[in-house]
Amino acid sequence: MIEVSAILEALLNVLTPYTLFFLVLGVLIGIVAGILPGINGAIGISLILPFTFGMEPATALIMMLGLWGGQNFGGGVTAALVHAPGAASGAATLFDGYPMAQKGQAGKALGIICVSSSIGWFLSTIMLAVIAIPLAAFALRFSAPEYFAVGIFGLSMVASMATKNIFKGAIATLFGLAIVTIGTDPFSGLPRFTFGRFELMDGINFLVVMIGVFAIAEVLVQVQKPNVQAKVKKFSRELPSWREIRALLPTMFRSAGIGMLVGTAPGAGGSIAAFIAYNEAKRFSRKPEEFGYGSQEGLAAPEAANNATEGGAMVPLLALGIPGSGAAAVILASMILYGLRPGPQIFTEQPVLVYSLFFGLALGAVALLILGLLLTPYLALVMRIPKPYLITGVAGIAFMAAMAITGLLFDVRLVLLFGVVGYIMRKLDFPPAPMILALVLGFMIETSLRRALIMSDGDWSIFMTRPIAATILAVAILSFLYPMLREIVGRLRQRSAKQ
Amino acid sequence: MLLKNVISGLVCLVLGALLWWIAGDVPSFTATDELGGRFFPRLIAAMIMLASAGLIITGALGIEIAGGQVGGKKGQAQAPQVSKEDEEPVETAHVLGVPVGTARLISFVLVMLVYTLILDVIGYIPASLVTFAVMIWIAGEHRPVRVILGSVVITALLYTLFAIVFGMNVPEASLF
C-alpha cells in the first residue's frame, strides 16, 4: 500500500514555497486564535475554510492542520499568562504554567509550552503514519453495512463521551442527523423538508451550521459576559535552557503517547488527554510535590499531550472517515467539500494527498517550534485586543465566511439562526460537537443503511451476520449504554451499602 | 428535580413529534429502495422522542447521567482553580428590568438580524460600518471616536482581505 513515488511527490509538493507559506500562515492564525478567548480549533478552521476554496486541496488542508496545531499551543499561552485558557485544551496548563509565570518565569513557561507542543505534535504525526496505513488497509474490506456500523460507532462514542448528560449528547446527535435529511433525497431525488424553498434543495451546508453553533454562539456567550480586559503583567523573556528541555524529554514523549492514544478515540479531545498526561506525569515524577506550584514537568505533560491528540484524531479520520473531534469534523467536512472521499480508499485513490498531509503535519510542528520561540515576547500583545472589537471582528468574519459558502444571503441568516440555537444549546448543556459530527456523518449513515438493505433485499440481519459490522455495532451500543449501566450499578451499590 | 432538563426534554419531545408528523409528507418507498426517504427521518424522530423521554424521566428523578470518560477518573475534566482576583466581576445592573448581560445579548442578536436583512439593501460596506459600530458600542466601548474608528478598521480589513485579495463577491446595494 506504501508507494515510494507518491511519498517523494508528496514531499516535493509540501516543500513548495506556496504550500509552506500557507502552512506557516495557518500555524500563525492558529496561535492567535488559540490565544483569543473562546476561539477553538473548530471555530478557527470553519472560519477560514470558505476562503480556501480556490486553493489546491492539499495546501488548504495543510493550512487547516497548521491552524489546529497552532491553536493548541495558543490556548496554553493564555493559560500561563492570564490564568484563563484561550482554548479548553489548555485547561490543565493552568496548574503549573500560571504559577511559573507568577514566579517571574513566564518566558521559560512559554518556551516549555512551545517545545512540548511541537514535540507532541511531531511524534503524533509519526505514530499517525504508523497506525493509519495498516488500519486503512484493513478497512478496505468494508462495504455498506460496515460503513453504516462505523458511522454509528463514531456518533455513539462522541455522544456518550465527555458529555455532562448522555441523553443531551444523544439528542444533539439526532438533531444533527435530522438536519442532514433536509434537501434532496439521495436515492429518489425527491425534495425532503424543503418547504418549497429552492435554497434548501441542496440541503443545509454543514459549514453554515458549524459557523453558527461554534463562532456566532461564542460571540453571544462573550457579549453576555462583562467587558473585562485580561491583565497581563510584564514578564521575563528568558527561555528554558537545553538542559531543562532535555530533562523534560521523557515526560514529553510519554505524554505524546497518551495524547495520541486518547486522540484516536472519537469524542475524546485535547483537554481529556492533557488531564490524563498531567496525572501520569505527577505519578512518574521524582518531585510530585512541585506539581501545582510551577513544575516544569507539570507544564510539559499537558501541552505535549493536547498537541498529540491532533495526530491521534487524524487516524480514524483518514483511515475510516470518522472525525474524532469538532476540529477533525471540520477537516473532514473540508475534505468532502474538496471532492475527496475520506476513508480507507483515500490511501489508494489519493496517496500523494495523504502523504502530503503527513509531511504537512510534521513540518507544521517545526513551524510551530520556530514561530512559537520567535514570537514568545510578543504573544501577550494579542491578549490586549479589547473585547468589543474582538467579538465584533469575529462576528464580521463569521458573516463573511457565510457569504463565501454559497453567496446566498439565506445562508447568512441561517448562520445567525444556528448561532442562537448554539447559544441555547450551550446554556442548556447540550454539546454542539456531536451535532456537527452527525451533520458530517449523516449522509454516509443514511446512504449506507439504505444501500445495505438494498443489498440484502430488506433483510435487517445483514448487520448481524457480517462479523465486522456486528462487532462495531455492538461496541457502539455498549459504549452508549455503559454510562447508564454504571449509574444503575453505582446506585444499587450505594443502596446495599446503606442497608 | 432538574427543572432545566425536564423542560428541555419536553421541548425536544415536541420537536421529535413534529419531525415524525412532517416526515409523513415524504414518500414512504420508491422504485429504487424499499425504505424510501421517509424511513430515516422517522427513525431519527422516534429516537429523539425516546432520548427526550429519558431526559425528562431522569430530570424528574434528579439524576444526571454523565457520559463515559477516556481514562476513567483521570480523564475527567477538572474545573481550574480561579483565584479571587481572576474571577469575573458580577454585573448587578438592569436595563428595562432585564439583567444587563441579557440585554446586551438580545440587542446583539437583533442588530445581527437587522444586518442580515439590510446587507443586500444598502450594500456590504455601509451595512457593516453601521452594524459594527453599534455592536462595538453594545459590547462595552462607549467612546464615540473609538467606536467609529473600530468599525471603520474592521470593515476595511474584512473588505480588503476578502473582497479585494480573495476576490469574493460581497452583497451590493439594491436600493441605490
Automatic annotation (TrEMBL), chain A:
Q: Name one Pfam family in it.
A: TctA
Show the InterPro entries listed in the entry.
Answer: DUF112_TM
Q: Where is the signal peptide?
A: none
Indicate the segments forming the DUF112 domain, all copies: 20-437
Q: Which residues cross the membrane?
A: 20-40, 47-68, 80-98, 110-133, 139-159, 166-184, 204-223, 256-278, 317-340, 352-375, 395-424, 436-454, 460-485
Keywords (A to Z) from UniProt: Membrane, Transmembrane, Transmembrane helix
Protein name, as recorded: C4-dicarboxylate ABC transporter permease
